[in-house]
Amino acid sequence: MKKPRFLTMVTLFLLLAGTSSWAAGAYITDSFEVTVRTGPSNQNKIVSMPSSGQAVKVIETQGDWSLVRLATKDGENQEGWILNRYLITRMPWELQAAAAKEQNGVLKERLARAEQERNEFKSRETDLSGKLQSATAALEKLQGEFDALQKGAAGYTTLKKDYDEAVSALEKNRNTLEALSRENRELKSSQQDKWILTGAAILLCGLFIGLVVGRMQRRRRSLY
């Protein structure tokens, strides 16, 4: 009794597994004549003939057939039965080649952009290098001018100091000269006064002597 029951359970499991619904992704295999029918047999009517590589959704499977949903050329969804041998889970080689070609084109485009950016960067680097050299030369020139200006400023400061000292010494000597000139003038004036007084004294002495001598002579004459 247990063995028939076990066989019955296995049979039911296989039937359920065969008719279970699973919306798995799949592709039409690399074949040129693929038909989708209204039922799971070659006697059923053909409803469409999808192209190789078209993506479909597997709704359920019964034996060698699977119920699939695919998009028509009008963009509407269509369901039908297709043999399992026409379904593959991997992407068809043609689609893989097309995807690889597209990816290769994208990579080539990225490579071209990278090469262009590299050339632009190299050009900017060359331009910046030239500008840096020019700026360095200008900076060195300014540094030289600044050093010369500093030296000139130091020389100017020294010269200004010497000039101020010379002006001060000249002013001092001028004041001294003016003082000496005043003293000389005063001395000359004093000497002139002394000479005048001396001359006057000599003149008075001469007059006095003349008077005395005259009187003495007159007395002598009177005595004779």
Structure, briefly:
The protein has 224 residues and is of the alpha+beta class. It contains two helices and seven strands, in the order αβββββββα.
Description of the molecule:
The chain has 224 residues and is an alpha+beta fold. It has a domain at 2-90: SH3 type barrels, CATH 2.30.30.40. Helix content is 66%, strand content 17%. It has helices at 2-18, 93-223, and strands spanning 21-28, 36-37, 46-48, 55-62, 65-71, 77-83, 87-88. The termini are far apart.
- Give the proportion of residues in helices: 55-70%
As an assembly, this protein is single chain
- CATH domain topology of the domain at 2-90: SH3 type barrels
Q: What is the helix/strand order?
A: HEEEEEEEH
CATH class of the domain at 2-90, please?
A: Mainly Beta
> Tally of extended strands?
7
Taking pLDDT < 50 over at least 5 consecutive residues as the criterion, the unreliable ranges are 1-22
Radius of gyration: 69 Å
What CATH architecture label of the domain at 2-90 applies? Roll
Distance between the termini: 226 Å
Mean of all residue-level pLDDT scores: 76
Look at the helices and sheets and give the structural class.
Answer: alpha+beta
The named CATH superfamily of the domain at 2-90: SH3 Domains
Q: What general outline do the C-alpha atoms trace?
A: rod-shaped
Summarize the biggest pleated sheet: 5 strands, antiparallel
Q: Determine the strand fraction and express it as a percent band.
A: 15-25%
